[in-house]
Amino acid sequence: MDPLILSFAVVNGLLIGGIYGGVALGLSLIFGVLRVVNFAHGSLLMLALYAAYWLQIWAGIDPYYSIIVTVPLLFGIGFMIQSVIIAPLIRRESALVVEPLSALLLTAGVYLVIDNLALMAFGPNVRSATTSFALPPVMLGQIPVNMPRLIGFGAAIVVAVGLAWWLKTTRMGRAIRAVASNRDAAALSGINVPLVYAVTFGIGASILGLFGSLLATFVPITPQVGLNFGIRSFIVVVLGGIGSLPGSIVGGLVIGVFEAIASQFVPATSAAILSLGLFVLILLVRPSGLMGKA
Amino acid sequence: MSVAPHTTSAAPAAKSKSRVLPLALFTAVLLGIPLVVKDSFFIHSCIVVLFFAYMATSWNFVCGYVGQLSIGHSMFAGAGGYATVLLFTQTGLSPWLGLPVGGLVAALLSVLVGYPTFRLKGPYFALTTIAFAEMIRIWVENTDTFLGIPLNGAAGITVPLLGQNVAAMQFNDKVPYYYIIATMLGGALLATWLLENAKLGFYLKAIRGDVDAAESLGISPSRYQLIALAISAFMTGMGGGFYAQFYRYVNAERLIGVDLSIDMALMSIIGGQGTIFGPLLGALLLAPLAEITRSHLGGSLLGLHIVVYGVILILAVLYLPKGLIDPLRRLAAKFNGRGTGR
Q1: What residues are paired with A143 via a beta bridge?
Q2: In chain A, how many domains are there?
Q3: Measured by CB atoms within 10 angstroms of the end CB, which terminus of chain B is less buried, N or C?
Q4: Are A113 and B311 a contacting pair at CB < 8 A?
Q5: Handedness of CA A127, A128, A129, A130 (dihedral sign)
Q6: Which residues of B fall below an 8 Å CB-CB distance to A?
Q7: Residue A225 near residue A46 (C-beta atoms within 8 A)
Q8: Which residue range is the domain that position B95 belongs to?
């Protein structure tokens, strides 16, 4: 194997992997705080991609500027999903933790509704947005680095670091961490738990709003694109350790590089099988993931 | 989740009496439909509905009673369907034998997958079953031949048309298929009834209620869960074989894809998992929706029925967590003059 081709594959794998990690951040945050496996995670990314696309078609807004709309839009959608659909379940359950399966079923229902509404509204056609910015590849030695992907990679790192800092220092961030570690104790000390849950879900979704805009120029936009990203996010989050933000990025990088290198030796489809196999293996052998608390 | 009190304290004789009449009525209607209705399109739709009822009942056999959510049951349908078709096209084995053999192949696969997986709980188990099914789907879609067996990749395999040929389970008329799947459904319901009244059923309920307590009483959770999974996979595999014979076609996306698994789970959960007739009820309500949107909207509103499924699922999880069969049961109990109203 030519070392240049291999190093090109590794660089590309790192970029894509960082993006996987960034997309998975919200899934990890929501599970860490609410103990809800959000099956609709990929569907929300799909909505964000379409939002960026239609903003360009209808209003001529460049995908990179549409962030101003997609991020608050997705925050609102996430906030509503939590407070309208999942909150009644949490109210009903008197136990400390929501029964994870019921919550999974609820979000699976949300996934079915969103994906198929999108199919009805937009049709099965593949679309893509274009940016007016000239984004030539930068050269890393002899290796060309794709600029939109590099932006996505950078955004993933910035969001992960920024989110961790925000959770650590701000009042709302501390409230979120308090609710994550003990819901009832947090409620007793005066924290508005339903609001914290809704805000957490909103933040998790708004990260997808950001990535919807950033990925719209190079990811084929279809109503089914969500499930692919959703399943990959599950793999990334389980690998990195559920609830761990750095774990999400590390898990993404591992999967990205793993698939990039594997697809140099076996067909890309077999690489997908291998990463699913890795997912199963991690769950069976080390369910806490690479960066999770054992 | 607590152990669902599945029967009231009333005497079993009274209970069975209250069930016999509606059951006999249902059976009569089921068997009578092809005698009264001659419209072949309608019969086709009925076969599809019965197929989903059968698949949901098979799913419920393990998932409903063990309390685990499998979203990978389509891998068993795929194993059964592909085995039935390949045995017929490659060795000439009649589908009448191919169906049970396909079921055995699915059962074998289920033991291999279930042995490591049943240790996982809740969402971890659910996600792992998806992962296994997706691995198999992607592999089949990208494999043309494996050890000399022509899997034919994403194109799928067509069963050669032989015309009216009873030995090859091919009929010019749809009615025989109707009676085959109705019989299979009856068998699956009977198996579930036997499960409810056999030791295995009580073991499974004990495991569902409290694994540790069950284990301390000497019930091996992994062993009995695996037995139930193997039986469920056997039935699901036979269902896959029936699907292959009915459409004379198998492909990975439809038979192993995640949609079929979700349909099976949805119908059981909405109807009432862990009960004999819940999955049947769920399928009778949901599957016609898909058929009606397909036939009357002519594909113009692709996905409409799944939107409705999703909404019903959300409402059911929030307001009827024991399924639609729960209020019906309470109603029936009232009618029988021994109100159990909780």
Answers
A1: A140
A2: 1
A3: C
A4: yes
A5: negative
A6: 1, 69, 116-117, 119-120, 122-124, 126-128, 130-132, 134-135, 138-139, 141-142, 258, 262, 269, 301-304, 306-307, 309-311, 313-314, 317-318, 321
A7: yes
A8: 41-257
pLDDT over 90 percentage in chain B: 23
Does the global pTM surpass 0.90? no
- ipTM of this complex prediction, to 2 decimal places: 0.87
Q: What residues does B165 pair with on adjacent strands?
A: B170
B15 assigned to some structural domain: no
What local confidence, expressed as pLDDT, does residue A231 receive?
Answer: 86
Residue A279 lies in a domain: no
Give the separation between CA A24 and CA A36, rounded to whole angstroms: 14
**Residue A281 within a domain:** no
Cβ of B317 and A105 within 8 Å?
yes
Residue B129: list chain A partners with CB under 8 A.
none
Cβ–Cβ below 8 Å for B131 and A109: no
For residue B96, tell me if it sits in a domain: yes
Split into its structural domains, chain B has a count of 1
For residues A209 and A75, is the Cβ–Cβ distance under 8 A? yes
pLDDT in tens, A237-274: 888 887 888 889 999 999 899 888 888 887 777 778 88
What does the DSSP assignment read for B158-193?
EPPP-SSBGGGTB-SSSHHHHHHHHHHHHHHHHHHH
Longest dimension (CA), chain B: 64
Best mutation site among A28, A83, A105, A284 for testing chain B: the one with the most B CBs within 10 Å?
A105
A17 domain residue, yes or no: yes
Q: Could you tell me which residues come within 8 angstroms of residue A281 by beta carbon, excluding any fewer than 6 positions away? A: none
- Average pLDDT score over residue span A154-175: 93
Range list of β-strands (E), chain B? 145-146, 149-150, 157-158, 249-250
CB atoms within 10 A of CB B35: 8
| Domain contains B265 | no
pLDDT number for residue B291: 79
Domain-located, residue A156:
yes
SS3 at position A235: helix
Q: Is residue B84 included in any domain, yes or no?
A: yes
Give yes or no for a contact between A109 and A38, defined as CB atoms under 8 angstroms apart. no
Contacts of A267 in chain B (CB under 8 A): 142
User: B302 contacts in A (CB within 8 Å)?
Assistant: 116, 119-120, 124
Q: What is the pLDDT of residues B189-212, one digit of tens each?
A: 988 888 888 888 888 888 777 777
Instruction: Say if A276 is an interface residue toward chain B (CB within 8 Å).
Output: yes
In whole angstroms, what is the distance from residue B127 CA to residue A234 CA?
8
In A, which residues are within 8 Å of B258 by CB distance?
Answer: 227
Residue B1 burial by CB count (10 A; 0-12/13-18/19+): exposed, middle or buried? exposed
How many CB pairs below 8 Å do chains A and B form together? 111
Residues in A touching B124 (Cβ below 8 Å) = 283, 287
